[in-house]
Amino acid sequence: MSPKNSIGALEQxxxxxxxxxxxxxxxxxxxxxxxxxxxxPSTIYRYLNTFVNYGYISRIxxxxxxxxxxxxxxxxxxxxxxxxxxxxxxxxxxLVNEVNQTAHLAIREGNEAxxxxxxxxxxxxxxxSRVGMRVPLYCTALGKVLLAYSxxxxxxxYLKEVELIPRTQNTIVSPSRLKEELLSVREQGYALDNQExxxxxxxxxxxxxxxGEQVVAALSVSGFFKDFSSDKLPGILSxxxxxxxxxxxxxxxxxxSVTN
Length: 260
Hints:
The protein is α+β, with helices and mostly antiparallel strands. The chain has 2 domains: 3-78, Orthogonal Bundle (Arc Repressor Mutant, subunit A); 82-250, GAF domain (Beta-Lactamase, 2-Layer Sandwich). Helix content is 45%, strand content 20%. The strands form 2 sheets. Strands 6-5-4-9-8-7 form a 6-stranded antiparallel β-sheet, sandwiched between helices. Strands 1-3-2 form a 3-stranded antiparallel β-sheet. The chain is elongated, with a radius of gyration of 22 Å. The model has no long low-confidence stretch (mean pLDDT 87).
């Protein structure tokens, strides 16, 4: 077999594996796979049988298949070698270069968000944020993202434990209104801090997903409110979501931004 044909066979195998992984969570048949890739069912069967033998695909019945446990083992092994900040930092630099505003990366720790990385924008607006600083969940874009993708039970527990103290005149202090806001965050795939944590500062945040579509962090862009006018915000938001999606992809998350 020529090298060209060998590469072609490998590409076919990868395509079949990806179809099963991304579309066969509840099982997918050989016929369904053949409709998505230009291969004869008997050829697809031979590829699938090899993947089954190695544990990368599981056979549900004679013609239906789903992702195998071996993929989880490999995924966890790879993810354990990733450092979130190491993966995300080049993307923060790219984001800052695109939008000319300050970018933050944060994770949730208890009832707060903690900044794990920051890249200052060229606008010279000195923000008091710093790596290691803790901020509330309810009044920051990063925090809203991290809270919005929590379970309903966790959100209810949070609202019982945390007092929604007004930090500016725009801060949401009503638990019911905050729950509505969090629902909107999940539906639209981003959060807005409209001068709710710091007067004069607007922030937009987006989720970062890892393997299993779990939100492990949030990415944000922050700046002076005049730089986030209605004509500028869509462009900033587009860059933010695209780069958050790229970080998610590198962490083993979904290829496309998940918004609900």
